[in-house]
Amino acid sequence: MSLSFSELMRMVLRTLQNPREGAAEVLALGIPREAHWLLVAVVVVLSSLLTEFFAVVAMMGSPASAMGQPSLVLTLAVHLGSIVMLIVLVQGIGRAMGGTGRVEETTVLMCWLQFVMMVVSVAQTLLILLMPPIAAVVLFAGVGILLWLLTHFVAVLHGFRSLAGVFGMILGTAFLIAVVLTILLQMAGVEFPMPEGAV
Hints:
Layout: H1 5-17, H2 19-27, H3 36-59, H4 63-66, H5 72-96, H6 103-130, H7 135-158, H8 163-187
Helix pairs in contact: 1-2, 2-7, 3-5, 3-6, 5-6, 6-7, 7-8
C-alpha cells in the first residue's frame, strides 16, 4: 500500500468535507497492525518538526525569545505523550460507554486526525501571516475543526449514532482532564496568576 502526496491531500479534503466517510476510507486502507507504532512515530516526528518550525517563525527577529525555545527532544516527548493519551482515552472511554472500536482502529484514526490537523495548522499559519487581524477567528476555527473531526471519528470508530452525545462526552472528558491537571499542578506548587483586583 502506497499513497502519493497528492492523494493524501485529496483524502484530507474529503475528510474535512465528510469526516464520517473520511474515517471509513482511512480504516478501509487496511494498515497492518505491525505498522501502527511506525505510523505513530511518523506522525509524532512530523508534528514535532512542524511545531519547531512554527516556533522559529514566531520568534524570528527576537533572539532573546529564541534562547527559551524548548528542545526538539522535549517537543517529541510532548507530542508522543499527547497522542498516546488521546488513543488511550478514546479507546478506553469509548468502550466503557458501550463502543465497539478496536485499539488498532483507534490508533489509525487518531494518527489520521493528527495528520489532518497538521495540514489545517499550516493553512492557519499562512492565513494569519497574510491577514493578521483575523488571527483570533482562524485559531477558533481550528479548534472547531478539531472538535468536529474528533466527534465524527469517535462516532464511526465506536458505532455511536448520537453526535451530540459524543460531543458531550468529549467536552466532559476535556473538563475532567483540565480539573485533574490543575489540581496536580497546584499540588506541585505551581501558582496561577490572579487577575488584578481579585481577592
